[in-house]
């Protein structure tokens, strides 16, 4: 198939592009390479896909590389660009769209709400309009476990009500699901939303806990432990996330238009156990700055993945022991840490 992957220079998007190319698909990657975190990491990911920094810096100009005996095309573009996005769809004639582009981060949404509206809401509507007018067979898009907000029932199920988000980021992701449902109903576009649960692994985002903790410990700085360590997360390894995404992309959609799935490890891990595993891998104890919970944070996440098992015979299973080791091995290599 010919697949558009938005957010291609991002953590999950980069890994998804690699997997799709390995599986023999033609992939066009789109990203605006914003400066929410170090753009050099984004350029380095693209370089792994055969796109140089010089090629990636130019807006609305496609660059092409050969990887895994197939072509990867990259284009730097904003999803909010109502003029250029339809031109891309008209030219490339995609079969499937995988939308992994978003302004990420719960805490940042308190400081910069406009960027969430632009990217996560305006950009998503533009994408839906293109799917509507250019005969896209299936739209697969990233949602988030944050939509569960203040829900008390554990584990979180896609059958649960998600009417109490506690961050603008979560609200923007819930709005994506609502808009996708509307377009599926009105225009018969098959859409699948994926609620990701705390994704981690090599090439990860620098604003995520594992990256922040590893960096601070290696630099002999204290780590910030929120809610005094009384947090639990369903940490999900990147390869497990991508396997789920690609299975959903590759399986023909039958007998349904709209669906939402959880993709998580189906296992809640205590934050202090997570930190202990990082310390074990770095052979160094962290200096811990114990702090109250931050606005927008939830105390516990845990995914019910029964419908993913039922429909795709798939359940993530990488342990934090294996996942953290892989990340720290990558981190030491990439940042040349002794």
Q: Which residue ranges are poorly predicted, with pLDDT under 50 across at least 5 consecutive positions?
A: none
User: Helix amount, in percent?
Assistant: 40-55%
Q: Main sheet? A: 8 strands, mixed
CATH superfamily: NAD(P)-binding Rossmann-like Domain
Q: Give the overall pLDDT as a whole number.
A: 94
Derived from helix and strand composition plus strand pairing, the structural class reads alpha/beta
H/E topology pattern: EHEHHEEHEHHEHEEHEEEHEEHEHH
Structural Rg: 19 Å
What number of structural domains do the residues give? Answer: 1
Strand order of the largest sheet: 3-4-2-1-5-6-7-12
- Specify the overall morphology: globular
Structure description:
InterPro entries: Epimerase_deHydtase, NAD(P)-bd_dom_sf. It comes from Abyssalbus ytuae. Keywords: NAD. This is NAD-dependent epimerase. With 338 residues, the chain is of the alpha/beta class. The protein has a single domain, classed as 3-Layer(aba) Sandwich (Rossmann fold), CATH 3.40.50. It has twelve helices and 14 strands. Strands 3-4-2-1-5-6-7-12 form an eight-stranded mixed beta sheet, sandwiched between helices. A two-stranded parallel sheet has the order 8-11. The longest helix is centred in the middle third of the chain and has 21 residues. It is globular and about 55 Å long. The N and C termini lie far apart (43 Å).
Give a short overview:
This protein is α/β, with parallel strands linked by helices and 338 residues long. Helices cover 41% and strands 18% of the residues.
């Amino acid at each position: 198939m010919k697949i558009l992957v938005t957010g291609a220079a991002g953590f999950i998007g980069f890994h998804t592009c690699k997997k799709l190319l390995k599986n023999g698909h033609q992939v066009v990657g789109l990203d605006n390479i914003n400066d929410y975190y170090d753009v050099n990491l984004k350029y380095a990911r693209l370089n792994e896909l055969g796109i140089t920094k010089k090629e990636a810096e130019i807006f609305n100009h496609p660059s092409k590389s050969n990887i895994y005996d197939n072509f990867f095309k990259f284009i730097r573009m904003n999803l909010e660009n109502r003029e250029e996005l339809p031109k891309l769809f008209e030219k490339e004639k995609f079969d499937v769209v995988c939308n992994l582009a978003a302004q990420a981060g719960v805490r940042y949404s308190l400081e910069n709400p406009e960027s969430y509206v632009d990217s996560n809401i305006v950009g998503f509507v533009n994408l839906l309009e293109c799917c509507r007018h250019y005969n896209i067979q299936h739209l697969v898009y990233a949602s988030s476990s944050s939509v569960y907000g203040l829900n008390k029932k554990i584990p979180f199920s896609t059958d649960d009500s998600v009417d109490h988000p506690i961050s603008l980021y979560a609200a923007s992701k819930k709005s994506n699901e609502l808009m996708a449902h509307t377009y599926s109903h009105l225009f018969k576009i098959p859409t699948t939303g994926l609620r990701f649960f705390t994704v981690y692994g090599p090439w990860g985002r620098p604003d995520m806990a594992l990256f922040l903790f590893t960096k601070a410990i290696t630099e002999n700085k204290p780590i910030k432990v929120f809610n005094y360590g009384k947090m639990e997360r369903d940490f999900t390894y990147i390869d497990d996330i991508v396997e789920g995404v690609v299975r959903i992309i590759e399986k023909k959609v039958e007998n349904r238009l709209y669906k939402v799935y959880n993709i998580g490890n189906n296992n809640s891990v205590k934050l202090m156990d997570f930190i202990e595993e990082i310390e074990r891998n770095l052979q160094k104890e962290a200096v811990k700055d114990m702090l109250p919970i931050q606005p927008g944070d939830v105390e516990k996440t845990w995914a019910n993945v029964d419908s993913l098992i039922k429909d795709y015979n798939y359940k993530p299973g990488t342990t934090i022991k294996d996942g953290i080791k892989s990340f720290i091995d990558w981190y030491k290599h990439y940042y040349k840490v002794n």
